[in-house]
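Q: How would the structure tokens look for this protein?
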Amino acid sequence: MAGRGSVTSGIARYIHQNIQSGAWAVGCKIPSENQLCKELGVSRVSVRSALQQFMALGILESARGKGTFVISDDLSLFALQQSTEPCSRETLESMKHILEFRCLIEPAIAAMAAENAAPGLIARLEEQLETMRSSVGESARFVAADVQFHLALCRAGNNPVTISVMEDILLKRTDLGYALNLALGYYGGMYYHTLLLDAIKSHDGKQARSLMLEHLQRGIYDLRADNNAPEPAAEA
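A: Here is the predicted structure in token form.
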């Protein structure tokens, strides 16, 4: 299957195009995983990974023994904001460096938060996720809720040093968060935050750690000029 980016991203674009064009209408049963593998010449793991993104975003739904169906054709999460001023190389480098630093500490923060998640934390995360969902197309409001989601996880650990560092990175550099949203759009944030919340509700620290690392690495990968570089792998 030709195209830029990772295999999974290519499959996701294929799914997106079929829903957007109406070839796969709401209520339609889409081809099976095996059919997609044969049609696109890709592995079942890659197909499943792409399908899971659309399921997490409430666009596809899998029914055991029946198949996978389109339940929504709202693809607004995939739309990029239009910026009159493209990000400079310096801005892109700053975003990449911040994401690289966050990779070092936020997976551990997410794991700890999941293992010790109290009802209050879950309620705060649900509130921020819902704000993100209702703010698609409103970048500033979306980014603010995104920041508060990550800070809620951090504050749950009650470590003043970690909180201070993360507040400095996330609150004092919201302009970079806005630029990141302009560059990458909405669906990645919604996808990973939805899965992170599920892991936290389940008190699954290992899964929360893996998802947070994958989320941040995905941002780095998508910012890179060389889209032929290997796709980042989640922590085992």
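Strands lie at 60-63, 67-70.

The radius of gyration is 18 Å.

Upvote if useful.
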